[in-house]
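Hi U.,

Before I forget, here's the chain from the pilot set. I'm dumping it here mostly so it's searchable later in email.
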Amino acid sequence: MRSHHWVTLTLYMVAVPAVFADEPTSKPSFALNAGVESFHWKEFNGDQRLLSETGPRLTVGFMLDHLLQGDQTNPYAVEARAYLGVIDYDGQTQTGVSAQTDVDYFGVNAEVMGGLRLAGSLRMDLLGGLGVDTWIRDLQNGVTANGSVAQGYREDYFILYGKLGPGFLFQSETSRAYLQFGLKYPLYTYERAYLADIGFDSDVDLSPGKQLSGYAKWQMNWGQETDKTRFGVSIYYDSYRFSSSASKTVSAAGTLYSVHQPESHMDVLGARLDYYY
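Structure:
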C-alpha cells in the first residue's frame, strides 16, 4: 500500500479537531462501539452477474462525535473502525465454470466528517467528509461444479473517498438523534491482485473505475445532559460503485493474458452499540 495517503489522513484527522478546539463542551463525545453488518459484493460483465459474496462481518471502533451536540456551530466527527468476516462466495472460474468457496475479509476504515450548522429549529447541517478504506479480500480454494479445485488468491484494496450531504439533529432533555445521508465518491482507487500465487509470472496493480454511490446513518444516545456516560445505537448503510478497470497484461508459462477488475458493487447494512464517555 502507499503510505503517503495514511500520512495525509492522519494530519487531516488531527487538524479538524484542532480547528474547532475553541468550542469546549463537558458532554460525552468520545465513544467506543461494536456491531455487526450484512455485507454484499457483486461483480458484473455487462448485464451478466459474475459472482456474489454475502455474509456477516464484525466491526469494532471508536469515534469523537460532536454531531449530536446542539451547541456546535461547526459540528464534526472523527471515526475509525476495523471489520472482519468470512463471506460466502458464489461465482465462477475464469473459464465460466460455477464455483463456491469462502472469502476472508479484513479491513480498516477511517473518516472525518465536518460542516456548518444552519440556524433554525430543524438544526440542519451541511456536511462534507474525507475517508480512507483499505481491506484484504482473500479468496480461499474452492470446488467447481464439475468437482475440480478452483484456486483462490488474494486482493488488496485502498480507496480514498469523499462524502457530501445534509445532516439533521433531533434532541430532547433525555435523548439525542442524528440523521445523515448523501453521496459518496471514490477519489482514488488502488487494487493489487496477487496472481503470482496462482502461477502467473507477476502480481498486477489495477485501478477500479469511479462511480457515485450513497450512504446513510441514523444514530441515537440516551441520558441527561449532566450524565458522564451514555449508551447509544447506530444503524447505517454504506456502499461503493466501481466501474470496470483498465486491462493489464500479465504472463504465465510464456502466454500473455489480459486482466481487469470487473464492474463491482458493494453494499453494507450495519447496526452497532455505542458507549459514550
